[in-house]
Each structure stands twice: as structure tokens, then as C-alpha cells.
Amino acid sequence: MLKSNRIKAAVVTVSDKASRGEREDKSGEVVSEVLSNAKIDVLRREVVADELEELKKLLIELSDSGFDLIVTTGGTGISPRDITPEATLSVVQKEIPGMAEAMRFESRKKTPYAMISRAVCGMRGRTIIINLPGSPSGARECLEVVMPAIPHAVEVASGSAHECASK
Q1: Is 2 among the domain residues?
Q2: Residue 12 counted as domain residue
Q3: What band does 1 get if pLDDT is binned at 50, 70 and 90?
Q4: Were both Cys, which of 7, 80, 94, 96 would link to 40 (CB 3.0–4.6 Å)?
Q5: Is residue 145 one of the residues assigned to a domain?
Q6: Considering the entire predicted model, what is its pTM?
């Protein structure tokens, strides 16, 4: 069987209301669309409540089952229920601060609220985990900021990148 070179992704929406069916998961749809348009295979979508242990367990399950990329949307702000960064930090082995910094930097050009984003990015094993805001427009904008680096980051994380330097 031939191994696909396409990136395998999971999209996780972290939202109490969406998990209870009280709100449509528009941000998860937007993230899936952006990834699919970039030729990244979204093989799984999940919606979970803002529950630390539930999200940690899901991130571990997804990364340990071979996904190259996990993109979360929601739970990155400062409300009492926002726990996505804590869950992510508790499972990653390496942080990738440049991605989160780039998202905040670019988002700040559009809204001062970007300054209160606590989104983080990192690696668990060979899986890249990226936190995005919960609003559909914020999720799209932030994902588009880091999208050019994702294929290379996944390649490097997998151990298959041979040369990163350019001449």
C-alpha cells in the first residue's frame, strides 16, 4: 500500500454551546474549508465542551493515532471557561511560539482583541497542534497566517525533511 504524502488533519471545536447543539459549529466548518482548499485532508472533526480533561484526552488520542495536524478553534480567550491553551500545553512536548506570535501580530492589525488571545502551538510526538480563536473570521484569519508554514512544519516534525536551509 502506498503511503499518502498528503497531510492528515483533525479539527476540534471547543465550545460549550456548540457541544450542546445550541450553536452551529461555523468556525470548525471554516477551518475545515481552509485546510481542504490547501490540499490538507480533514479526516476527523470533533466538537467538545470547554472541559480540560476531555480536551486533553482527545488531543492525546488524536496525536497518538497518527494525525499530522490538529487544529483547535475556540477556548483561547480569557473567560473563566476558556481552557484550550492549558489543555494544549499539558500535552505538547515542544512549543512552537512563532506560529502563535505571528497569528497575534497579524490579528492585532484588525482588532485590539488579538492582544488577549492566549492561543498556543506545539508538537506532541510528530503531530503539530495549533490553537485558533473561536470566531469564524478570527479562525480563518489566523489559520491563513500560519498556513504557508504548515507543510514544512509537518515535514520537519515527521523527520522526513532533509534540508531546511536555502542557498
Answers
A1: no
A2: yes
A3: very low
A4: 7
A5: yes
A6: 0.94
